[in-house]
Amino acid sequence: MDRDDALARLRSARVGRLATVTPEGLPHVVPFVFALVERGSDIRAYWAVDRKPKRTPDLARIRNLEHTPRVEFVVDAYAEDWSTLWWVRCSGSARVVADEAERATALEELRAKYERYRLEAPEGPVVAIDVDRITGWRADDPSTR
């Protein structure tokens, strides 16, 4: 899968799986929604802590980032027809957004992508993932044979 194809699939993905690392060095994976922002060759994914019910507002994924900012996330498609399978994985560094202008931009992008965020804007922290590596695979790519 080439970079343009991977980016197109990232842009259109409705949900991904985010992996952070616990202070004990263990993987911690959760589903998440995100918006992709591209400026030249810079790729950044934003996600926010929203109002969905949570056991605690002190989220492990945020605590994990404070300890180890390196993250990965994946988007994919599964079907019984395995000739249509694909995945895209992004690696990067994550940080809680402190700058108000960047936060506003991130929330605007998230609202543009997700109707739920237009109805009920996230009030929790906004996180930026500065993507430094994108890899992907698709079953119908002849170069994988």
Describe the protein's architecture and organization.
With 145 residues, the protein is an alpha+beta fold. It has a single domain (3-140), classed as Electron Transport, Fmn-binding Protein, Chain A (Pnp Oxidase, Chain A). The protein contains 4 helices and 7 strands. The protein has a 7-stranded antiparallel sheet with strand order 2-1-5-6-7-4-3, sandwiched between helices. The protein is globular, with a radius of gyration of 16 Å. The two termini are 12 Å apart. The model has no long low-confidence stretch (mean pLDDT 92).
What is the H/E string? HEEEEHEEHHE
Let me know the largest β-sheet: 7 strands, antiparallel
Rg calc: 16 Å
Q: Going by CATH, what is the homologous superfamily?
A: Electron Transport, Fmn-binding Protein, Chain A
Average pLDDT confidence is: 92
Oligomer: single chain
Poorly predicted runs are none
The shape, in one word, is: globular
Q: Can you tell me the CATH topology?
A: Pnp Oxidase, Chain A
